[in-house]
Every structure is written in C-alpha cells, then in structure tokens.
Amino acid sequence: MEIAKDVLSGARNATETMRDTLHRITQHDAELKCFRDVFQQGALDAAASLDKRRKTGQKLGRLAGVPFAVKDLYDVAGLVTLAGAASRRSEPPAQVDAALVRALKAEDAVLVGTLNMDEFAYGFSTENQHFGTTRNPHDLARIAGGSSGGSAAAVAAGLVPLALGSDTNGSVRVPASLCGVYGLKPTYGRLSLEGVMPFVPSLDHAGLFAGTVEDLRLAWDVLAGTETDGPVAAARLGTLQGWFRETATAEALAAVDGVAEALDAVRPALLPEAGRARSAAFCITAAEAGALHLDRLRRQASEYDIATRDRLIAGAMLPAQVLVQSQRFRRWFRNAASILFDEFDVLLAPATPCTAPEIGQNDITIGGKSIPVRANLGIFTQPLSFIGLPVITIPVFLPGALPLGVQLIGPPGGEAMLFQLAQQLEQMGLCGPQPIERYA
Amino acid sequence: MAPLLELSLDPAYHAGVIANLRVLLAHAAIVNGFEVAFDLAPAPEFTP
To answer: How far B15 CA lies from chain A's nearest CA (Å)?
Structure first.
C-alpha cells in the first residue's frame, strides 16, 4: 500500500495522513452516509504513536499508518456492535476487537470507524431505516449495494483505502460491483469470524474491499497469514453460461465478455442447477437467520426494520424439511462444482445483473421482464457463496456507464490464482476503480 | 404457526410475513423438486 510504503520510508508522516483521512470523511460522509462512528481522537493518537515509534527506530508493521474501517458487525472494543440495528443499542459494548481487526492493528493499520450496513446484514441495498441510506459515490441518487454498502462506498470515494465487510449471499460482491471497487470473498472458513455478529452461520464469510489488487492482496496476506506473491498458473479459464447469463442486462454481459475476450483460451462453462442453488441458499438464509433472531423477535419485533422483521419471521416458520433438503442439495451442488474445477482453474461471471439501481427503485426490466430489484441483486453471487468458493470481484467500467463487477471464481483455497488473474487484468487496463471527480 | 413459536404477531405484520412466506415456499418448491440420493448427507457445517 502506498501509504504504508511512505510511512515506513519516512516520506509521509502517519499523523498528517490521518488528518487528511479524517478531513475527507468529515467533508464527504454527510452526503454519502458510509460511517456509523468515526474515531477521530483514537485514530490520531494511534497515528501519533506510529510516528513516535518510527522516530525512535522501532520496527513498524506492513500496514503502518493505513486507515481502515469495518462494517458495523465487527466487534470494536468499547463500542456496542449494532449490526445496523437500533434495537441493539442497549447491548453491552464489545470487550475486545474482532480477530480480523486485531490482525490489521497488529500490522499497524489504524482503525478510523465503523460502517453502515443493512440491518443484521439481511439485504443488498444498505437502505437502513435507522442509520440512513448509503449513497453510491458514482451517482448519489443510486444505492451502494449491500449489505456491506458503507464499506464499498467508503473505498470507492477514497475515504479509506481498505475496509472489512462480510458476505453471506453476496454482501461483499454486490456492493463492490455497484461501487466499482475490488472485493474479496474468500473460501468459506478461511478468515476468522471471531467477534463478528453472525447472520447465517453456515454461509457467513468475512471479506474485504480495496482500491487496487495490490492493496487487497496485502490485506489478505495479513488476515490469512499467507504469502500470495509467487506465480500461480490460472491457464484454464471459463465463462459461466446458463443461469449466469439468463437474467443479466446487456451491460453486465458486456463487462464479462470484454474481460473474457481479452484473455486467451476462455471457454464456456456450465455449473448445473445454479438457479436451484440460489433458491437453496435463500431457504437456508431465511431458516438460519429466523432461528437466530427468534428470541429477539419475541421481545422486540417492533424495533426491527419492517422488511427485515417480516423476512425473519417468515424464515422462522419455514419447515425443517426444507432446511434439510437445502443442505443435502448443497452437498450435491458442491460435488458438481468440484467436477467443473477438474476442467477449469478460474471461472468468470457477472457479479450483479445490472448497474446500481436508483434509491427507492423497486423493479428492474431485464430481457423485457420486470423483476424486483433488491431480491435479485444477488442472483449471481448466491450460488457461489452457497458452496464457499473464493471470489474476487473486479471493477469494470464500460464507456460512459456506471461500474459493474466481474466475479473471478476459484476452487476452494484458490485465492492465489484469483489474485494473479486480477493483477494481470489490472495491468492490461481492463479493470480498476476510476477516480470520482467529486472526491478527487 | 406464530403461537407455536411463541410469537405474538401484530396484525399489521401479517401481510408482510405472508408475502415473504409465499416467496420462501416458492423457493422451497424449487429445492424440493430436485431428487438427491437418499444417502446424501446434509451439509449443515459446510466444508468446501
């Protein structure tokens, strides 16, 4: 990361860098609504401590002075973890930071705040009744996507270079796509969820956002304890057909096809029953989340967002047979994907069926058919998180259009290949965020 | 169903809950329409 390189070399002062960051947040967040809390004094104190340590010759970490922020479901010591829910205001504050927050701080990154999200992570739009709607930095009349919308928008607007989010059905990949930044949803179970409020335990993933592949990779290496710099072959590439093209706008298809055409040897690939996988993920989500919230719903139903409440109550009523069948199908689908990865190293698919919808927009027309927009933003992400596959969403900008993400999908544990391919595409000029004049 | 779950539902919630349940059951029908081998175990603690 440029900031860390400069702080480590002494070319930049961590305190000045932090003042700039906090100034930018103050200047722009009133309209964007990315942040729930900003730790002005804590961040300045941490930066000053880094400068002092450097002056006295102490070794600094790999992320020295890098400002980062976390989705409001990561525990931050001393702060109540709200998860976007006003009903949690009376809960006790977290005693310790979440494991991933600790890992970033251990490399001297500086936590500057917590970020807005859909209530309890149940949504794709970050239109939060309690804490406001996070706006898309590319067009303030449009949503940022969700549920990690605050994280994606904060990186897209350059308020922070790095943010943590979470992804159960697409909550990193959807906002990364709509806001035009890189997003990583790693292999299921690969990053610790200690100190992260659960939503759907059998589907929840920690994830991250950054403005460049290099930044994403460095943060991943820190969080996962890996070193992904070496060359890894990703020669056999496929573009997912069927479900992953049927409900996509022409723009989404053009984004994927543009990437595929620029790479040699991209062949069509079929992941069977992907639509059914999306339905099974939908049922597991409702059932597990409904069960998780049942006790709170008995006591505080009126304090939920209306849409969240109704979904959770319906989920709590879903027959157990459906959950069991969904989990059995999940094993079948995992096996089908495993067979596909005998033939391919990396698969490509759109991250979202369309560019960012307008705030309050209910439907979108695709292929002449009108469909509800919020429920369908995750149709291409859900089948993949359903079986825990690692995915990097790369930001593609077609001329004159809003950003769209393309998913690079690997086999379990295949993050290194995805990073290599993302780096290659970035170097070819096919992806990467575009600066937004308003926030330059 | 709600009383069995000890949920006292405000009548104002009914329409929203029913609409969501309808959507869920439509997805459930899609999942139930797939025949998986009888001995295929569920994956509640999923390992990719």
So the answer is: 9
Q: With the C-alpha atoms ordered A374, A375, A381, A382, is the resulting torsion angle positive or negative?
A: positive
Per domain, the residue ranges of chain A are 2-278+318-439
Per-residue model confidence as pLDDT tens digits over A134-146: 999 999 999 999 9
Protein fold of A2-278+318-439: Amidase signature (AS) enzymes (3.90.1300)
The model's pTM: 0.96
Q: What is the ipTM of this complex?
A: 0.91
Neighbours of A383 (CB within 10 A): 29
B45–chain A Cβ distance below 8 A for any pair: yes
The catalytic residues of A are: 71, 147, 171
Which residues of A are less than 8 Å from B24 in CB distance?
282-283, 286, 314-315, 318
The predicted-structure confidence for B9-33, as pLDDT tens digits, reads as follows 888 999 999 999 999 999 999 999 9
Nearest to A372 by CA among B22, B34, B13, B29: B22
Q: Among candidates A379, A390, A425, which has minimal Cα distance to A258?
A: A425
With CA atoms as reference, the chain A residue closest to B41 would be A328
Q: Which of B24, B40, B44 is closest, CB to CB, to A318?
A: B24
